[in-house]
């Protein structure tokens, strides 16, 4: 299947895609076919990813960048070829992509590099990463904790101040709050797609606000994009988006757990002091000091997750073969179908935009009078997997007036029939729990 020039998956292609995911054939809860609507938490894995990891362990298993024997050479080649494939999927060069365990570690790597620079590590080259009292870090109210807590901690360590852009009642970043970005701002870190509302952030407007500060004569803020929920579902080109850094996780984009990536502009990675130190990231070591390897190896201390990179390589090739435009078009159809269904159910409130424009198929919702855990339990009894809780985004839930929610999220293998089944089960939740149905303010 070739995605080039395509706008959506055909029915035949969708059936072929589903056949590639072995887990989708299993049943749960007394023989019910599994309906997996939890792709925002983690994606299922196509057989090619599973095979790639197994093949690595069966035929090429060795440590990378530290051996001269045949297996070590083959493992190193596989490791670096994975970097080429994954960097190509997001529009950057291989030497600008650092392997991490996940997106959370990528953001922690970045914030600790700022922290190290702030105490003088990296010298003058790292001056742009130095933070102190009077400096500001800007995030948004839409962040999940992985792109909030590390910045809070960085501010606590350096004396910088954390500020944030607001969120509208419809769950989108409030562009009226862009003036928070000012001359004191050193970092702007924000999500590409909310893991609660599914809203796609106005990247161009936020980046432009940051660049306007740079245009005033200062070096300007560094822009960090959390792309966990965009890379698996949309065509993404970090260079075209004009961001300085970005992170994403492999397990959300059909790859294995334990692998993610940090993108950084080449000159910024070269200036940034390392986070983890030890073996494999050095150039010269004496008893009194060390010089560090060039990026990306500078940020990859210790034995790396080689099998996981090989699996992620297979996932990237799988997505590239389908075509991200085709994946996005298919999921846009699913999102519109899901929103049409869910917004017609009495007592169900969607957190975030209820129109399909500028959003993806991540839909969090509440059900009047029923706790999200009970909603999830009833759906699970029907074989439908959704997530419940605060989705690691407590401030956003608080802003939208909910303590927690249930969340349905589609993947490229999802069908409209599965969404119809989900909506049918959701429609009987309130009746099942004995909650009075209200229509137009009066009992129906």
* Strand percent estimate: 15-25%
Shape: globular
Distance between the termini: 50 Å
- Let me know the number of strands: 19
Low-confidence stretches: 439-444
Query: Residue-averaged pLDDT, rounded?
Result: 94
Helicity level, as a percent range? Answer: 25-40%
- Biggest pleated-sheet summary: 7 strands, mixed
**Integer-rounded radius of gyration:** 23 Å
Short description:
The chain has helices at 11-19, 47-60, 70-89, 103-118, 149-158, 203-215, 238-241, 266-271, 306-322, 324-342, 372-381, 394-399, 416-427, 429-432, and strands at 27-28, 32-33, 35-36, 97-100, 136-140, 161-165, 185-191, 222-226, 245-249, 260-264, 282-285, 290-292, 348-350, 362-367, 384-385, 387-389, 405-409, 438-439, 442-443. It has 444 residues and is of the alpha/beta class.
Question: Tags for this entry?
Answer:
disordered C terminus; 7-stranded mixed beta sheet; 14 helices; 444 residues; alpha/beta; 4-stranded antiparallel beta sheet
SSE order and pairing:
Blueprint: H1 11-19, E1 27-28, E2 32-33, E3 35-36, H2 47-60, H3 70-89, E4 97-100, H4 103-118, E5 136-140, H5 149-158, E6 161-165, E7 185-191, H6 203-215, E8 222-226, H7 238-241, E9 245-249, E10 260-264, H8 266-271, E11 282-285, E12 290-292, H9 306-322, H10 324-342, E13 348-350, E14 362-367, H11 372-381, E15 384-385, E16 387-389, H12 394-399, E17 405-409, H13 416-427, H14 429-432, E18 438-439, E19 442-443
Parallel strand pairs: 3-15, 5-6, 5-7, 7-8, 8-9
Antiparallel strand pairs: 1-2, 4-10, 9-10, 11-12, 13-14, 14-17, 16-17, 18-19
């Amino acid at each position: 299947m070739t995605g080039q020039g395509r706008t959506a998956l055909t029915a035949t292609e969708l059936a072929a895609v589903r056949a590639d995911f072995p887990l989708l054939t299993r049943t749960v809860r007394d023989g019910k076919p599994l309906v997996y609507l939890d792709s925002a938490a983690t994606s299922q894995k196509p057989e090619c990813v599973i095979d790639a990891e197994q093949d690595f362990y069966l035929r090429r298993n060795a440590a990378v960048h530290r051996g001269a024997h045949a297996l070590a050479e083959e493992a190193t080649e596989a490791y670096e070829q994975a970097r080429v494939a994954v960097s190509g999927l997001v529009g950057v060069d291989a030497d600008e992509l650092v392997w991490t365990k996940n997106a959370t570690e990528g953001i922690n790597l970045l914030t600790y590099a700022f922290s190290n620079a702030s105490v003088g590590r990296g010298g003058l080259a790292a001056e742009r990463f130095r933070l102190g009292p009077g400096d500001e870090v800007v995030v948004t109210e839409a962040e999940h904790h992985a792109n909030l807590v590390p910045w809070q901690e960085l501010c606590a360590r350096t004396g910088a101040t954390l500020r944030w852009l607001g969120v509208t009642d419809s769950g989108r970043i409030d562009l009226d709050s862009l003036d928070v970005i000012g001359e004191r701002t050193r970092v702007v870190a924000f999500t590409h797609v909310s893991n609660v509302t599914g809203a796609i952030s106005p990247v161009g407007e936020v980046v432009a606000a940051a660049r306007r500060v740079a245009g005033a004569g200062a070096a300007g803020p560094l822009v960090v994009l959390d792309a966990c929920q965009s890379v698996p579902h949309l065509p993404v080109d970090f260079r075209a988006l004009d961001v300085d850094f970005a992170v994403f996780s492999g397990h959300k984009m059909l790859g294995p757990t334990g692998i993610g990536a940090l993108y950084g502009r080449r000159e910024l990675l070269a200036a940034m002091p390392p986070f983890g130190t030890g073996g494999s990231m050095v150039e010269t070591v004496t008893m009194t000091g060390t010089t560090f390897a060039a990026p990306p190896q500078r940020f990859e201390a210790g034995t790396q997750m080689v099998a996981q990179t090989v699996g992620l390589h297979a996932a990237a090739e799988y997505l590239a073969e389908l075509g991200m435009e085709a994946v996005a078009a298919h999921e846009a159809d699913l999102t519109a179908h899901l929103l049409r269904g869910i917004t017609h159910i009495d007592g169900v409130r969607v957190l975030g935009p209820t129109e399909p424009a500028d959003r993806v198929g991540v839909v969090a919702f509440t059900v009047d009078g029923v706790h999200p855990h009970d909603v999830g339990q009833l759906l699970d009894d029907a074989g439908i997997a959704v997530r419940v809780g605060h989705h690691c985004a407590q401030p956003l839930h608080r802003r939208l007036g909910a303590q927690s929610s249930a969340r349905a999220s589609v993947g490229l293998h999802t069908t409209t029939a599965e969404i119809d089944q989900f909506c049918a089960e959701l429609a009987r939740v309130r009746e099942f729990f004995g909650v009075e149905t209200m229509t137009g303010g009066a009992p129906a």
